[in-house]
Amino acid sequence: MGVCRWHYYRGSNSIYFAIFTFVIILGFPLFLNAEVIKKFNSADAVALTFDACETKTPAYFDEEILNFIIKNKIPVTIFVNKKFAERNIDRLKEISKYDFIEIENHSANHYQYMQKLDNQTIVNEVKDNEKYLIEILGVKTKFFRFPGFNYDNRSLTVVESIGYKVVHANLISGDPDKNVSAEKMYKYISKKVRPGDIIIFHINGRGYNTHEALPKIYESLKNKGLRPALLSELIN
Asked: What is the pTM (predicted TM-score) of this model?
């Protein structure tokens, strides 16, 4: 995190002007324009994004969701963490060959509160997963999603300073909650969705009713004239 030192200069009008001098710690600058992307500009596109993550409990791809995506060739972005990738390496290699599926970075260990980590550990979380995905898939990730959407300006700045754009979502499916039924999920998203929205689901077995809701959501999008698109198409 950058530390600001103030230097004051007295002008002829007796007004003090403040000039920032940034002291760089661990080589990370303080970006004043750091931002999390939650929407994008489009007249007809939305982004369907899926988290594929694992912490302590083994997790696997929800094959019903995955097979529906593949069968219909639906453009989706999947944010994968390293632990999940290691457990699902063969399936991950298979789906990464489809041009309508892109794999992006969701950290190595899926710490829920990365803002509590020091700068170098944050970098390691991102770069370790990046390195692993390059090794197994030949894919260089460029988008990052904080676990739990938890971050502060320092952690966001650190991630951006190593070349990543942070992408969260503005339309939350709520699918990790078992009480969110498929019908409730479908009705909520169908009512709220607008062009430029980024929608988040889970594809790691924690999106309990997503496999049932997704076909109806997909049909609703088409009926509204909305097309799913990859984040790489939508965000420069």
From this structure: 0.87
